[in-house]
Write a structure and sequence with these properties.
With 213 residues, this protein is α/β, with parallel strands linked by helices. The chain has helices at residues 9-16, 51-59, 101-117, 136-148, 164-178, 199-210; strands spanning 21-27, 40-45, 77-82, 86-90, 121-129, 152-157, 189-190. It has a seven-stranded mixed sheet with strand order 1-3-4-2-5-6-7, sandwiched between helices.
Length: 213
């Protein structure tokens, strides 16, 4: 971003997320990953947490990330480039019972291989449905991220579909749980793709991670 004076963080965030964003590649194996030339922010979550909807809302697009009425359709690491500054990585959904065990195993290995040694990866945002909380498959991924020392942060989705009281109670429980996970950021981000609540907070968190451009 060229300017005679340093832009405010808010101005920079608006500028960055107004840049062109396009699909670059889908990788179904580590050898297919793009060159590690830009910072990467990855989004992971169960197949029905609204990951595609959140990515579209985050980037201000309607259908950049594919949405489907059938959970589990993301079968590779999908890379979207934001301007010349950042890769947004849509990771395969997990935990959907209708997907074969063989495919689940392949996805799990791909995710593990990606997380182990991807130097440009700044953070994984782990999406959790605010109505249902952490599931065993979420906890398994959190443990893997802890072991790999990969920074991650919980993003609660669909907060418009739960009551403020229930949400507040769950956030309190979740913060206590996160204290036992060394790679986890201690505070979740609360979002709704429908109302766009929390999108600015998520954008600001991403800008903090990649630093000034």
């Amino acid at each position: 971003m060229s300017s005679e004076k340093t832009p405010s963080p808010a101005d920079f965030t608006r500028w960055l997320f107004a840049q062109e964003c396009h699909f670059v590649t889908g990788a179904d194996k580590v050898s297919s990953l793009p060159s590690p030339t830009l910072p990467e922010i990855a989004f992971a979550g169960r197949s029905n947490v609204g990951k595609s909807s959140l990515i579209n809302a985050l980037l201000g697009r309607k259908s950049l990330a594919r949405m489907s009425h059938t959970p589990g359709r993301t079968q590779q690491l999908n890379f979207f480039q934001l301007g010349k500054h950042l890769f947004i990585v849509d990771m395969p959904g997990y935990g959907y019972a209708a997907v074969s065990k063989v495919k689940i195993k392949v996805w799990a290995e791909l995710i593990q291989d990606y997380l182990k040694g991807r130097v440009p990866l700044k953070r994984v945002f782990l999406l959790i449905d605010s109505r249902h909380g952490l599931k065993p498959s979420d906890k398994t991924l959190m443990e893997e991220l802890d072991k790999a020392a990969v920074s991650y942060q919980i993003v609660l989705t669909k907060i418009d579909k739960t009551t403020p009281t229930a949400l507040s109670k769950y956030v309190e429980e979740l913060v206590a749980i996160l204290k036992n996970h060394p790679a986890a950021f201690p505070v979740p981000i609360l979002t709704s793709s429908h109302t766009r609540e929390g999108m600015e907070s998520l954008r600001e968190a991403i800008v903090d991670l990649i630093g000034p451009v």
